[in-house]
Amino acid sequence: MKRAILAAFGLAFLSLPVNAQSANPSGTWLTQSGDTRVRIAQCGAVYCGTIVSSTYEKDTNNADPKLRDRNIVGVRMIWDAKPEGDGYSGQLYNPQDGKTYTGKFKVMSPTTLQLSGCVLGGLICRSQTWTKTN
Asked: In whole angstroms, what separates CA 42 from the centre of its chain?
């Protein structure tokens, strides 16, 4: 009898839903436009992404006029990205418009990452697919 109860408990445990684990996004990614490479790495308990190369030289569209003359290489583009569901959520800086968005990204395959930046509490989002370069 005891074995039957343990076996039933074991089967019930195996049928419980398992939380999806986020795939590791670490690596260097080429943006969809092909003009910027971003290295995503763990920064403490979260992930961040830093521009490592770009066809743009300066951060000319930055909302802060004091930052418009800084080199675009080295700019933190993703920060505070924490696992959420099967992806990550955090803050995204878009150097093309100089704005910061609430965003999400998810590793779709070993070579693709889907990234979305949103405004109005996630009401309006734009997505793009990045390609791994290393």
From this structure: 11
In a domain, 4, yes or no: no
Q: What are phi and psi of 59, to 5 degrees?
A: -90, 55
What gap in Å lies between CA 40 and CA 76, rounded to an integer? 10
Contact at 8 Å (CB) between 75 and 93? yes
Domain count, the chain: 1
Is the entire prediction scored with pTM above 0.90?
no
The boundaries of the domain holding residue 126 are: 21-132
Residue 14 lies in a domain: no
Q: Quick check: is 107 in a domain?
A: yes
pLDDT per position as a tens digit, 17-57: 444 567 899 999 999 999 999 999 999 999 999 999 999 99
The total of other beta-carbon atoms located within 10 Å of residue 57's CB is: 10
Asked whether the CA dihedral 76, 79, 28, 89 is positive or negative, the reply is negative
